[in-house]
Amino acid sequence: MRTRFNEGFLWGGAIAANQCEGAYNEDGKGLSIQDIMPNGIVGPISDGPVEENLKLVGIDFYHRYKEDIRLFAEMGFKTLRFSIAWSRIFPKGDEETPNELGLKFYDNVIDECLKYGIEPLVTLSHYETPLHLAKTYDGWRNRKLIKFFENYCRVVFERYKGKVKYWLTFNEINSVIHFPLMGAGILTPKAELTKQDVYQAAHHELVASALAVKIAHEIMPDAKVGCMVLGVVNYPMTPHPDDMIASMERDQDLMFFTDIHVRGKYPRYTKKLFKELGVNIQMEPEDEEILKNTVDFISFSYYMSKCTAKDLSKYEKGRGNLTSGVKNPYLEESEWGWQIDPQGLRYICNYFYNRYEKPLFIVENGLGAIDELVEVDGEKTVLDDYRIKYLNDHLVELGKAIEDGVEIMGYTSWGCIDLVSASTAELKKRYGFIYVDRQNDGSGTLNRYKKKSFNWYKEVIRTNGGSLVD
């Protein structure tokens, strides 16, 4: 490979509490919105926890975190991205006093990471709004959640200061526009929500995110706090100016969130957008000042690109991660129809960096696939060369982005151990370097097995990207 990654590059993996921990009702934990979403974003929601919801057990990380972190350390992880379940700390979300057993669990997870020299990268809210807040306040539609989130942030910042340096506020914060329940804990059906409702909820989250940055810097002056967005490249389907403008407008849907996080104010183009949508953001006098608390870095997920056009009906629709567009005839697809585009990662890194000149952190990237457990030399494994190729090709393009001059802090592969899918709530869609013996029907031993990609990624980390094949 032409370029080695910078010294101190944070190689690692990413998981989320609701997709791996299980133990949904242990040690004082309250319910979250995930406990009533047994089918993921495809719905419908349930009245309460149901046996079919694989997230109730997850992969039992709650009881097996030591084993899993030891495996991550064996791969050489420099960082582990995980989330704190808000409802473990505040079971309802609006209490004054936190749940000590919940805090203790994350004490243990963080200490286990630090034992191996793994930097914790903690997401404060990863699609895990406490269910009580959804039922009582309709989630982030209600401004009161800002105060509840502030209280939660203060508690965890005080508890883990000196141990956790890197923080993310809201996972894929721009997803609220597309999936209000998962993104903002809004129980009112999407079809009944106005654009005003959705963008007002987004505003509340943006204010809360900026407030979290402010509080973190007060309590932990050395801390680095980033935003996290769902990163999608929007190629125009044709060079027709109409399609170019359509692509520009889709980019603005994403950049509106990063612009506010990085520049500390609403960009001018939102005036036109909100006028067209009939949106009038209700701001309190202090909001503009709070938004000036800008992030230290930008993090994002990247799985795929999409094409867009003025007239989408003329083209075949593509499938994708929370958002979809027009199918690109030049790209291959995953088993779930997500179009595979390694060069898109280089493109979006350059796009972000040229726009903001802020450090970037790729905190989700990976291939969901159906893996087959086989026996090789007496050991159970998965021969996942398809995953190795996907990750290798994306990391090569990430190296090229560094050559282009982009400042990249690190890379955490999504679902570094198999977990329950967020979008479909199934286990057969696997991302990990580690196979977990649990199936879609809930059966399995929960035993862990190293896939072929385990040793491949271990070598990538050991050589700081030198083993990648261009």
TrEMBL record:
GO cellular component: cytosol
Record keyword Ligase present: no
Keywords: Glycosidase, Hydrolase
Molecular functions (GO terms): beta-glucosidase activity
A single GO BP: carbohydrate catabolic process
Regions crossing the membrane: none
Keyword Hydrolase set for record: yes
Active site: 364 (nucleophile)
PANTHER family: 6-PHOSPHO-BETA-GLUCOSIDASE ASCB-RELATED, GLYCOSYL HYDROLASE
Family named by the database record: Belongs to the glycosyl hydrolase 1 family.
Name of protein: Glycoside hydrolase family 1 protein
